[in-house]
Amino acid sequence: MRIASGDDDLGAGPTYSGIIVPRVEALVGFQVPGRVVARMVDVGARVAAGTPLARLDARDLALGVESARAALRAADAESQTAAADLARARELHAQRVIADAALERAVAAAASTAARRDDARARVATAENGAQYAILVAPTNGIVTATLAEVGQVVAAGQPAVGIAREGEVEVAADLPERQIQTVRAGAIARVSLVVEESDGAAVISWQARVREVAPAADPMTGTYRVRLSLMKGGAPLPTLGRSASVRFTAPRRGGTYSIPATAVVRTRSIPSVWVLGDKRDHVQLRTIEIASMGDGQVIVRRGLAAGDEIVVSGANRLDSALVVTPWTGRLP
Fold this sequence. Notes:
Elements: E1 10-22, E2 25-29, E3 34-39, E4 46-47, E5 52-56, H1 59-94, H2 100-132, E6 135-137, E7 142-147, E8 154-155, E9 160-166, E10 170-176, H3 178-181, E11 189-198, E12 201-214, E13 225-231, E14 244-252, E15 258-261, E16 265-268, E17 271-277, E18 284-288, E19 290-295, E20 298-303
Antiparallel strand pairs: 1-10, 1-14, 2-9, 3-5, 3-8, 4-7, 5-6, 7-9, 10-13, 11-12, 11-14, 12-13, 15-20, 16-17, 17-18, 19-20
Helix pairs in contact: 1-2
């Protein structure tokens, strides 16, 4: 671990387990009720916007369209009859054959039937749209994360049927204990790391992340708080969904002190020390430090370290100044 420079006001903090999750995930469903007769996708499938996901039995919807069209024809006929009656009533009224009240009734009847015709026309449009809604399509490019409806199942309008994660937008979700959540706020910086397999072995890839959201209440089952972090652009390609990752939160530095993992500290005759990489980078030297405070797996060092020092944070108790060492570059053998 390299001690941060004086320009950086952040030190190393606790590390927690996290998981790569979609930034935006939508549970989509049919806009009309019906029985599912086909599902075209499975979990993990990549879909483009407009790709069919599932289909309902459209026979009842087709009958609904025919019924609405028949009602429109009847309403249109009534409207035409009322319009003709109104025209005759106006002629008779002009000849003073009928009273004003009769003309007013004809006007009202024509307006009423015209309104029923417009209502029937709107019902036809609604039924035709409903028939088109028998096919559920992807609203955006993404990855299928859940299938909540099976063939033969009767679903209600709006009932979630398929989960879609928007492609290219991922973040990290981590569950933090109550003692740590007090120091984590939206906008805080963290380092996200995971191990990936390559042709010549495994490598550790890291991203800088920023806290986007902190749950306002603890999970009732685990007592932890869900924190979601957005990966900052640049560097390595974004990881795939579902991968496990480690999240190391940074901690504010306190007036020239440095925060290091407790595993880096060794005690010689009860004196706290750390192993520091030498100038030739092939040996380590034991250096005495003064500890200001300890907690959450971290040690705040008041004296003994300087910006740019590289210290051993794992296996420090097994080292000796006579051993030849090789700094770890982040690549596993």
